[in-house]
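Quick log. Single chain, no ligands specified.
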Amino acid sequence: MELDVGGWVLVSFFIFVGAAAKPLKKVILEALRSKSSQISKDLTEAEALKVEAALLLEKAKQREIEARQEASDILEHADKEAVRIREQAMSDIAFFVKNQNTHLEDRLKQLELNAVKEIHDHMIKIAVETAHDVVKKTLTPEVDETFTAHEIKKVKHLT
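-> predicted structure:
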């Protein structure tokens, strides 16, 4: 049996494949093992990153809960502080108003005393002026001499 060119090409191809298959098989298996090892490492790393991400997410959720609680505490404290400040302001205003009333009452009393004194002084001035006018109109030179002599005697009698 004689082979033509096509047959010899086919036989050569099988021989070539048979001869190259063993080293190629080794290279292909090594490449597949390497790729499998890399995929296994990537999966392990991805799993570790997944666990780390889950931990970070849990921490973030815990921080959010703590932040909400802290914000709530701050708002509660702010409300209490606002009430305290409002009460203090009302107390300060009441104290100020009381002091102002006391001051105004004292001032009013002083003004009343001054008015009474001015009226009294004015009344005395009018009385003195009236007495002066009466004495001036009723005191004649003769009455003046008699009055003066009588007063001198009184003074001499005292000494």
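The mean pLDDT is 90.
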